[in-house]
Amino acid sequence: MEKKRPNTAVLLMHCPDKPGIIAVITDFINANGGNIVYLDQYVDRVNGVFYMRVEWDLDGFGIPDDKIADYFNTLYAHRYDMSFKLSFTRKPQRMALFVSKMSHCLYDILARYIAKEWDVEIPVIISNHPDLKIVADQFNIPFEVVPLNKDNKKEMEQVEFEILDRFKIDFIVLARYMQVLSPEFINRYPDRVINIHHSFLPAFVGAKPYHAAYERGVKLIGATSHYVTSDLDAGPIIEQDITRITHKDTIDDLVKKGRDLEKIVLSRAVEKHIQRKILTYNNKTVVFN
Amino acid sequence: MEKKRPNTAVLLMHCPDKPGIIAVITDFINANGGNIVYLDQYVDRVNGVFYMRVEWDLDGFGIPDDKIADYFNTLYAHRYDMSFKLSFTRKPQRMALFVSKMSHCLYDILARYIAKEWDVEIPVIISNHPDLKIVADQFNIPFEVVPLNKDNKKEMEQVEFEILDRFKIDFIVLARYMQVLSPEFINRYPDRVINIHHSFLPAFVGAKPYHAAYERGVKLIGATSHYVTSDLDAGPIIEQDITRITHKDTIDDLVKKGRDLEKIVLSRAVEKHIQRKILTYNNKTVVFN
Amino acid sequence: MEKKRPNTAVLLMHCPDKPGIIAVITDFINANGGNIVYLDQYVDRVNGVFYMRVEWDLDGFGIPDDKIADYFNTLYAHRYDMSFKLSFTRKPQRMALFVSKMSHCLYDILARYIAKEWDVEIPVIISNHPDLKIVADQFNIPFEVVPLNKDNKKEMEQVEFEILDRFKIDFIVLARYMQVLSPEFINRYPDRVINIHHSFLPAFVGAKPYHAAYERGVKLIGATSHYVTSDLDAGPIIEQDITRITHKDTIDDLVKKGRDLEKIVLSRAVEKHIQRKILTYNNKTVVFN
Amino acid sequence: MEKKRPNTAVLLMHCPDKPGIIAVITDFINANGGNIVYLDQYVDRVNGVFYMRVEWDLDGFGIPDDKIADYFNTLYAHRYDMSFKLSFTRKPQRMALFVSKMSHCLYDILARYIAKEWDVEIPVIISNHPDLKIVADQFNIPFEVVPLNKDNKKEMEQVEFEILDRFKIDFIVLARYMQVLSPEFINRYPDRVINIHHSFLPAFVGAKPYHAAYERGVKLIGATSHYVTSDLDAGPIIEQDITRITHKDTIDDLVKKGRDLEKIVLSRAVEKHIQRKILTYNNKTVVFN
Lengths: 289, 289, 289, 289
Prior knowledge:
By secondary structure, chain A is an alpha/beta fold. Chain A is 33% helix and 29% strand.
């Protein structure tokens, strides 16, 4: 049995905290016939910021989709100095995967995709190496090799942009893609490129974190998923986790144990993004339940 | 009923890995009437180093305590290019606590001490502030205030050395002692000063790690216990752990959650040290089970 | 510097989910001059239940303390079929500790108490054994020995009730108190007796869970804090945690590792209770952040 | 570059603890030209049992493979009352997967298989439902549907035995296979059938553990991999792990969070089995590092 597609609007917003904001917005939704199916809010009392995610059923909602943002702007955004993002769940988002040679994150994502765990479409996989075409073929997903390297990044990214546009991509997941994106790339997809870094950031920024962890003799290794910004490995952190290691673990053991961390941490972050449960502010994330 | 004190020798050693080392040493112990009560070994096959901890009952052992090291040296240490440390459990080790103003690590240690969880004596607590004298008094432990600061460190450390000598201190635990030790201090107690740092090192070295963690927006906070060396927060790591946080946690929440981490992580490290289960090598630790 | 005592009202409530409840209640508070300092709500969409915790400043609030519940009842409780609990933070709650012979949970709680981590008073410690009087004396807390056992439970509990009444106790923490309370006791303190059980319930209910865990060969041990009900170890769970063990751990090792779990898990639960952040419903807890 | 296949012997043994066993066995291996590449031993001092795993290179070893067990038996097994298992790594073991309808554990295993993380062959996947044939086809692995149910178990298991024999299967992994095996099946594959149960056993034995966990209101859910024995969910535990949940999690959320636990816990257990690092004794496991 095919599950009926959701038909809801999702509002992610933040503004200076004032009394009555929840009431105002829920009243607006209720008054126009919207049935709220999710509401979570959080007040940062230290900095005086109010954050909310509210989702409501559009069946029977009296305002057409393309007017809702207008209404919000006019009625509330100025009045409350509110930043908001409105999205609709009627159509699944379109996600592109960037990979290099390692398959563990790719398989973890595709296995969830094929099992319909996520409400997303994956129309294309892009790689700077041909190695993982075999995986894309298993899942019948177009695989585009863009042989980008340090010297041809500018031109090759243009090729990538064309592909991303052609496939109408909403957001990008770097599933152990071992290249740094240009500022131009990042600016085209603000808060829409998710990376997995194989350390508990901010420790071990940059290349070869498992080697660095081994050298330092840490007793934990970690993985961090974050939105990509122009500072290397310094974007808003979405999710982190760690696993214990001991003096007995070689670098190879760290790499092996790390793979399981990386794939789970990345997939948790991707899921939250798909569910539109992440709000970024001041280079940090608010992640709703 | 008083538990009978142990009467064992503990050998911690490492050397280039060669076949037959375990056999040679266990033969030596067995042949001289020693009953092995613990043996754990570990081979670092990447670097070709053999590590072992062996503990045997001295009741009935044929070699007097003060000759055992000699025998080892003569028979094996040169032959195998072995570094070893021999110690005896007949008398408990003597541990000094250094504290400043925060009591959570201090209470955690003293509660274990009073409940006789550890085979250790705590003859003195030293502090640069008088605040925690009340705790020392509760447990009837001498409390020495040494008002050390950046400007008088040299002289005040001499006072500390005198106290440490007077109380015949074997090793030192910095239980949230907020001062950096001088190189001279560290050289007097190599691998014998244990610190707790309130971050998952090497992230957030130095002062105010919870503030830094909050600023960076991490989703985990950690604590690290390590031997103190002359590089700040860079000594051999003994134990680390983390706890999850969310965007809802303020700096105060991090401090509060961190306290529980700090005290448990520090106490785990102190226990391993008391049990003589830690071997340091190349600025890393081998921690036996 | 003495921190100013809070002066807030805390409303914990649940009712069948309907649109607009948050608005109604926040409007009521705002309209009467109350400044909301905390609001968290949760909708159980499966069972259609709405839960909320709201806390507001009473300075300047227009309704006297002893009338607030009346207003709520009259205006909202019937209309929304609401169950609610109203409390005031002006005076700290009074907590009694019940102990037997083990000191680790007791010390952990008293160390937090003395460091003023918690807004609570501990006017009395009750025990069926005299062993821990020494700890109570360290902290200058009255210690009452009530030598209860299976045969005299009825009479001895009357003695306990008298003590609890005399000290005006609000809630009770069983800090490794090894006796089962009578139904009469439990009925006097519904959702007001917190226990720590040394297993991850519902595994290993009853006596000697570490022995049972050892026999079963589990790879994790746990601890569970819960409100006491008339079914042994079956009350609403407040908090649980686990730690990893291996085949190398003896029963003594489990007991030792378990102690750290028990004290932290119990203290986390006690803290949430003190903060009035726990709501019970259908033998389960809603624990607010 | 193809990695050279290992050519080692692995000895897993246990016996009553006596001095000198390590020396005797390592001497035997060294004396016959074997180079030890792994040695780990563990003494259960409570029960007086010695456990060891030793692995040595067979290149240059003076005793032919098919005589080694004989030598061991004659020289040591009787003398030390030793139980041992000898195996050779020259050929990868052959693993059969049993599945039903859920794909997450299956994909996790196949992704590791295809990436050559494990030294194993998977010649066949067996299922009581046709649903996952599509996954088997992606990886070009024969998929055999054996429509076993409660009423035809005896006959259908005969079909399974024929398949297992035909594919020369060494051990079996139940990757969320939702059927109970008959005692006859289990007796054919002692300590060679690995199951994943979706709870932290011994809590929530049997069907629908996530529903039971939800009803009980636990704050953790778990997964347990174990060898299958004739008692349901009561065989030797190989690996367990948990993840935190809150009152906000519905049964669907538990199922979703549980999937990640299940696949990782099962894969960790399978890896240890492939590496021949698990020894069972008294319905418990010794799992070497």
